[in-house]
Design goal:
about 200 residues; alpha+beta; Alpha-Beta Plaits; 4-stranded antiparallel sheet; two-stranded antiparallel ribbon; 6 helices; globular
Amino acid sequence: MAEERFKNRYLISSARANWHEYDGGEYFITICTQNKKHYFGEIKNEMMKLSEIGLYTEKCITEIPLHNSLVEIPLYVIMPNHIHLVAIVHNDFGKSYAGDNENGVNVKDDIDISMPRGAKRNGKNIVMQNIANQQSILSTAIGGMKRAVTCFANKNQLHFGWQTRFHDHIIRDTDEMNRIAGYIENNIARWEYDIFYD
């Protein structure tokens, strides 16, 4: 992992594989709540009863493809304190999302997602746009979902927090996909044996 310092003070190591661009492929994603608190609901009689924030989180997960047409979420499970999902990233632009497509047009330069049309740029917006331009398709999709849930919680005065970042595993073949799918489908029934159970 490459080690970099933010503002020459804080060590920020990337949790992503430095040999993979995350702009295409299949991934097993795990996202936990802050301090593993049961914000999403509770499991009773092998059934997950979603809380208000859990229901909104489910809505956000199912809407990821509406906000990013390159990302598909074929399978997910919401547990009391974490989420597992399979994300498939379809990269129609070539090797890098921030790179040129087949017509020689830089895709990211063509799209400004940071500000409404006609808004005046200031230093902060330019910095944030530069950060957004460096994110992978996968990070953008997951980060957008996490932000939407956090905004909903804040707006509705619901106590909620995410663990920073998320864990991803690159799915390499069909056998691995089948094992992960089985794990997700049986996660609620096997809650007492889960590593996040408390």
